[in-house]
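Service request form, structural biology core

Requester: graduate student, group of Dr. S.
Request type: structure prediction, single chain
Budget code: on file
Notes: please return the result as structure tokens.

Sequence provided:
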Amino acid sequence: MSNKIQLKHGLDIPISGMADKVTKKVMIPGTVVIKPSDFRGLKARLLVKEGDTVLAGSPVLAAKENPDILFTSPVSGVVTEVVRGEKRKLLEVRVKADSQSKSVDFGAQKVETLDAEAVKALLMKSGLWACLIQRPYGVVADPQTAPKGIFVSAFATAPLAADVEFALKGQEHAIQAAVTALGKIAPVHMSFNAKVKSAFERIQGINAHYFEGPHPAGNVGVQIHHISPIQKGQTAWTVTMHELAAIGKLLLTGKVDLSRKVAVCGPMAIEPCYIEAVPGIRMDELKAFYGTTGEQVRFVSGDCLSGENVTISGATGFHANQITLLKEGNEYEAFGWANPFRFKLFSSSHTYFHWLLKWLCPEKKYDLDTNLHGGERAFVVSDVYGKVLPMNLFPVYLVKACLAGEIEKMEKFGIYEVLEEDFALCEYVCPSKIDIQSIISSGIDLMIKEMA
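Core staff response, request fulfilled:
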């Protein structure tokens, strides 16, 4: 197989609000939120109570199935609230951060001397095991499994995605340490943008792959599909670049440091830029970036296609390095699709005349909002999904198998290879306005329940 993979299917969405490559603010969080829902399939056991003092790296939650897997606080401070939902389901643990930023000292490591079990033990004890996501299903990795590889995407193609090179500049040493350690568990595969020279290509101990094409070329699931497809009975682990850096800093310093550059972007962002923050910061602490009120703003932890709508009172997710601020599309539009002269709107087809503007002004960006421009309709069979999904699958049949709960058909059509984010573009271009990511999510949850 060629080391360079050309993807022809996909779609780059020209949305406005790209973050300038400058860090304008270092966020000193007031309250940090730890959410069990950030970790699919996690049955969490609470290890703290309100009023407890914690350090960065102190255990807050543990997995019931494997108590050795801990989830730790990203900051030092006091546990102010444990939020529960129906049937006392644990929703959030809120920690009021202090100004001292004290950390548990796990001890700096000589990476070359560690074996696979020592690496696993350190990551589980420190809470950074949560950075490793297992496919199929996108659950926290099982330390008892033997993955065929650990896959990392060193570039992002999602709309307004954080620039990996800028966000991680100067952290090559930490990333190298993490790659060396994880390489003792399984081969590490790192994928790069074939059109852009990356500073991370110099990292030793990786299997390098190069991808070229529109979004979702940067999705690690698409990359795995073309490098080494996941078959029934196989597992693969994934980790993001910024979480690789966190693992490396743990190995080199002995301390948990989840701080990262986060892109604050989108059409509703005031001066889109980067901030230095930890996961779990609340949206209401970002008031300077969206103005006086948040009533017309949708707060998305992640990108606008596959991120989570967290609302103004919510918080960023554990894995997110992007906050997208969109306008709520709740305004009525006269004539709707029957009006072709909508030069301010983008269409993936030739429904509007944007294709003419693209030819005249290829760099034009659009202030897109959350308006669906129509309601849900009959789910018809068409090839529109295949045009934006660069995977050798039958997306319509997989979605319908998930709807029907047909496990054998879900296996046949590729449920082991996908997560919701891989179908985000399919949902965007869907003429029937079907909530495809939700359907795929339900299918994966069914597989976890029935195949465990």
